[in-house]
Amino acid sequence: MGNSLTIVLLGCCLDEGEIARIVGDMEKIREVAVATDNVQTLERPIVVDLDDTLIVTDTLYEQIAMGLFKRPFGVLRAFFSLPKGRAALKAQLAREIDLKDTTLPIREDLVQWLHQQADHGREIHLCSAAAQPVVEMVAGRLGIFASATGSAEANLKGKAKAAYLKQRFPQGFTYAGDSAADVDVWKAATGIVLAGVSSSVANAARNLDKPIEAEFKNKQLSFKDLLKALRVHHWSKNILIFLPLIFGHAWHDPSLIIRTFLAFFCLLMVTSATYLLNDLADLNADRLHWSKRNRALASGRMSIPVGLTLSGTLLFVAFASALALAPAFAGALVSYFVLTGCYSLGLKRVPLLDTLIIGVLFTVRIIMGVVLFSRPSPAWLLTFSVFFFFSLAVTKRHTEIIRAGVTGETHSLTSRGYRVEDAPLTLTLGIASAIASLVVLVLFIIEEMLPASVYSDPQLLAGMPLILSIWLGRIWLLAHRGNMNDDPVSFALRDRISLTLGGIVFLLFLAAL
C-alpha cells in the first residue's frame, strides 16, 4: 500500500519513463530480498523432534508396551525412579527395555523432505526429550543427522529444549515439532515445520508470525480402522454362546434369552480387548508383516495409550457386567481371558498345543452359555466342540506348512514352532479329530436326540452329520492344497458352499422339530 501511494504521489511530478524505472528498481530490490531470505533459510539448520514427529509413535510408550508383555518387572523397576523426574524414568527404561531390534513407524513424507533439504546443504539435527540412547539409536538408523541429542540429567522438553537450542544455534534454526510443548521451542526458532499437529497447536504456531516451511499431517484413525482393530469381523465366532440355548430347547424362556444376549455382549467386549492387547504385544512382528503393518496400532494411527485405555475400559465394563449377571459366567469369562493371554504371550509358539488351545477357547464360549441356566452340562456338545474346533485350528497350520514347503518362506512358520516336515502329522491329527467329532455327533443323535419327545421327525437329524462330513472334507481338501486363506470359521461365513451347507443343516433341525 505504501509503495503504491508513493508511486501515485511521484506520478504528479515525474513522466511515465521515470515511473517505470522506479517500479523496476523496486521489483529488483524485492527479488533480492526474497533471494536473500531463501539463502538465509538454506543456511539455517533444521532441528527435528523424535516422538510423534519423526516417528508416528512415542518411544516412551513403545518401551512400556514392550516391557509389559516381555519384561514387566523391568517396567516396575523403572517406575521406582519416577520420583527423581521423567528424565530418570526414561533413562532407566532405556536400560531395561532395548529398542534396537524394534521397528518404529517413520513419518515417511517428513523424512523425504529432510533428505531434500540435506541435499541442498542444510544441516539436520535430532533433538528429543527421549532418552539419549534411544535418540542415538534412531539417528543411527536414518543416517541424515549431524547430531542427536536426548534427555540426560534434565527432561529436554518445552522451555528447557528452547533454551538449549537457542544457545546452541544463536544464528537461528528451523524446528519440526508436534505438541503444545513445542510452541515454546517455536517461539525461540526462526522457522517452523508442523508434523502431525492438532488444530489448536497449528493455530498457536501460526499466531507466532514466523515462516512455516512445511506441514505434514497424520493419517487419521477412521471408523473402519477402529472396527478392524476391535476385530468386529471375528465377532461371529461368539455366537457359539447361543448353542446351549438352542439345543437345550430353551428359546421359550424370555429371561434366559435376555441373559444370554447380555452375556454375548460381555464376551464381545472381552474378545475385542484381547485382540487389542495381542496387537500391542505383537507390535514389532506386525510392523514387519506385509499386511499387518497397516493395522491401526502397528501403523501408529491408533496410539499406544489409546489402545491400552480402550482395552482396559472394555475389560472393566465386561467383567463388572458379567459379575452382576452371573458369578459362574464371570468365572468362565475370566478363564477365557487368562487362556487367551497365555496363548498370546507364548503358548501360540508351542506346536500343536497352540491349536488345542484354540479348540478349547471355542469350547469355553459354549460353556459360557451353559452356565447361564441350571441344567446338566451337555457333555456331548463340549466333547464335540473340542474335537471339531481342534480340527479346524489344525487346518490353518497345515495350510501354512504346505505353503512354506512350496514357497520356501519358513520364517513365520518357524516362529510358531512348526517345520515343513510336520505336514503328515498335522494332516493325520486334523482329519482324525474331524472324524472323532462326527462320531460324537452321531452317537448323540442316536442316544439322545432320536428318543427325545421334543422332535416330531427326529429321523431328519441323521442328515446333519452327513452334511457336516461333506463340509469338513471340503475344508481339509482346500487346506491340503494350500488354498485356505483364512481361519475356517471366517472362511465359512464368506464361502457360498459353506453357507449353503449350513443352511441345509439348519433347515433339517427345524424340520425335525
Key phrases:
513 residues, mainly alpha, six-stranded parallel sheet, 25 helices, 6 strands, disordered N terminus
Could you explain the architecture of this structure?
Helices cover 65% and strands 6% of the residues. It is mainly α. The protein has a 6-stranded parallel beta sheet, sandwiched between helices. Helix 8 (132-142) links the parallel strand 2 (124-131) and strand 3 (147-151).
Q: Give the strand order of the largest sheet, numbering strands 1, 2, ... along the chain.
A: 3-2-1-4-5-6
Number of strands: 6
SSE-based structural type: mainly alpha
Q: Give the CA-based shape.
A: elongated
Mean pLDDT: 88
Q: The biggest beta sheet, please?
A: 6 strands, parallel
What's the Cα radius of gyration? Answer: 32 Å
Q: What is the helix fraction of residues, given as a range? A: 55-70%
The total count of helices amounts to 25
How far is the N terminus from the C terminus?
A: 90 Å
Ranges with pLDDT <50 over ≥5 residues?
Answer: 1-13, 32-39
Give the amount of beta strand, in percent.
Answer: 5-15%
Record the SSE blueprint.
Layout: H1 2-10, H2 16-43, E1 46-48, H3 50-54, H4 59-70, H5 72-79, H6 86-96, H7 108-119, E2 124-131, H8 132-142, E3 147-151, H9 159-168, E4 174-177, H10 183-188, E5 191-195, H11 199-206, E6 212-216, H12 223-229, H13 243-247, H14 254-281, H15 283-288, H16 296-299, H17 304-325, H18 327-345, H19 353-370, H20 379-407, H21 411-414, H22 423-449, H23 463-480, H24 488-494, H25 496-512
Helix pairs in contact: 4-5, 4-6, 5-6, 14-17, 14-18, 17-18, 18-19, 19-20, 20-22, 20-23, 22-23, 23-25, 24-25
